[in-house]
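Hello forum,

I keep getting stuck at the same step: I have a sequence, I want structure tokens, and every attempt I make locally crashes halfway through. Rather than fight my setup again tonight, could one of you with a working pipeline run this one for me? It's a single chain of 91 residues.
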Amino acid sequence: MNTVVSREPRMMAMNVTEDLIVAELEDGRIISVPIAWSWRLSEATPEQRNNFEVLGNGEGAHWPDIDEDISVRGMMFGVPARPPKKQVATS
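Reply #2:
Ran it on my machine without issues. Output:
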């Protein structure tokens, strides 16, 4: 009998470019999503994009300057974050 052990993917490193959010996983895979998936990262400066911390045991990353969190699971199976709705001025 074979036993299958289910393990969550873990991030070892992350890089954010002008176009992509790239995560290197501990099992050797490299996954990426368009930076447009995160409107906060899309609008952030390069310095803000590079200021992140790994969450937990590599479940994802947090960018404190822009209050953004992205999980490895979300990158693999998720959908883009929606930007906030703009307030309509009333008079």
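The mean pLDDT is 89. If your local run keeps crashing, start a new thread with the error log.
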